[in-house]
Task: structure prediction
Amino acid sequence: MTLHCNLLTLFPDMFPGSLGQSLSGRALEQRKWSYDAINIRDFATDKHQTVDDTPYGGGAGMVLRPDVLENALLSIKPEKRGRLIYMSPRGRVLNQKLVEELTTEDNLTILCGRYEGVDQRFLDAYDIEEISIGDYVLSGGEPAAIIVMDACIRLLDGVMGNEDTAGDESFSNDLLEYPHYTKPATWTDTQNNARDVPDILKSGNHAKINEWRHGQSLALTQSRRPDLLKK
Ligand code: ADE
Result:
């Protein structure tokens, strides 16, 4: 399974951004995923290359024009469009279930807004789904698109070194991750506190270790995110 993302943006240089590094960067080089950053401004039709205008009804900010957005969208071959997404704080809030749903797609087209928003008629005309990355407001959709893509890319075949790692962690089971420890077995910090790795993890008893980790996960989830347990 590979993934292609079309990004509709006024700032194409924001891509691949962090996705050009580390796991996703290597996967990009290996063509496990690909992207096209399409500059919305290239599809303006007037001599000033206008992409936005003031809102009907008044108010602050500028709104992206539907005709320009449509020209940009139609520049993508229909079979390469896939699921149409607009990054917006009004959208369905991203979680691991939605990420897993998105990774089943071969193509995604992600509209990144700036300013106040985009003309509603464009969203309606192409039945564009809105996705939010959380209850806060960014200055634009590009970082949000990068987050959606990062979460999808790491689930693609062969992207994570150890195929097990992606499933064995926070949210694939609605629990927060248990604490991790590595060497040294006793670490003395600069305040002279000697801190030991829990004995159970050095016992070699994998059944007991799994039980302990599960208990830690449950306790952490109960204290930090009880909302996850209610599911
Ligand atoms: N654009 C601005 N804020 C956003 C958010 N919280 N999620 C997705 N896109 C956004």
